[in-house]
Amino acid sequence: MSFEATFWLFCTGLGASAAGGMLGMASGLFIVPILTMFFHIDMHAAIGTSIVSVIACSCGGAAAFLRGGLTNVRLAVVLETGTTLGALTGVFVAGFVPVAALDFLFAGVLLVSAWQMFIRREDPAGTSGPIPSNGLAAALGLHSSYPDRTLRRDIPYEVRRVPVGLTLMYAAGLVSALLGIGSGILKIPAMDNALRLPIKVSTGTSNFMIGVTAAASASAYFLRGEIVSAIAGPVALGSVIGAIAGARVLMKVRGERLRLLFLSMLLLVACQMFMQGIGIDLLR
To answer: What are the transmembrane regions (predicted)?
Structure first.
């Protein structure tokens, strides 16, 4: 592969992961259409490359989110059990579920998630009273706090409805494996609405989780020969640098602006999925 092509692949990974890392989503939402539309790379190879990029993006941004106190590691480990099981299930049932039906279903889920996030326009200013000492979240030690640079203080938050969150994480992993996209686009609305987490905590925790979800299905793509090192290498390198840059930008962005940006992304992806379901595949 020529140096020019390698350079542009690196830039693709850099830009996609900077945007994805800032939003806590997998960069595959951007990398797959870019590789197929502008580089004319086979769809399966593009998805395999995006899987590698997701792992690199998660590794690159995780350290910054952890240092910033935005990642709830305990919660991520608990929720990842549901997401990983969903991803493995999706690998096994991918050949039996009509893709068009999944596209319509996914578009509907995104629209509902966008509406619920629009209704809840602001993050909670903190728990109004003492954090409950009973319940599953308290027993697992999931309640925590995060530093808000705008308010210059730590904001405590309560994790709610853990069983509902686990169910939604399973669905996110399932749909992610079936459609070949990152599960962060579903994880963040689930954590925002079901668990009632602040948007920055949802973003940091999602970034920590997406690499594990991608690793659960990466071996299948590798064994099928759909991960091309000449393509995945420069994209992964750019993804690490882009994820670090995106994480630093997130630290300085106000929560309501981040929520608006994520809402816009939800609507765009929902429109793309709907058009793909009726036979208009923009990725091709």
So the answer is: 6-32, 44-66, 86-112, 162-186, 206-223, 230-250, 262-283
What confidence tens digit (pLDDT) does each residue in 216-262 have? Answer: 677 777 877 878 889 999 999 998 898 888 877 777 777 677 777 77
For residue 38, the enclosing domain spans 3-277
Q: CB-side exposure of 55: number of CA atoms within 13 Å?
A: 16
pLDDT in tens, 148-199: 777 778 888 889 889 999 999 998 888 777 766 666 777 888 888 889 888 8
Tell me the CA end-to-end span of the chain in Å, nearest whole number: 22
- Structure-block tokens of residue 132: 């409950």
Specify if 26 maps to a domain. yes
CA nearest to 136, candidates 173, 168, 155, 164: 164
**Can you tell me the distance from the alpha carbon of 159 to that of 162, in angstroms, rounded to the nearest whole number?**
7
Q: Is residue 282 part of a domain?
A: no
Is residue 195 domain-resident?
yes
The count of domains in the chain is: 1
Structure tokens at 61: 């941004």
CB 211 within 8 A of CB 58: yes
Check if the beta carbon of residue 251 is closer than 8 Å to that of residue 69.
no
- Which tokens is 260 given? 């608006």
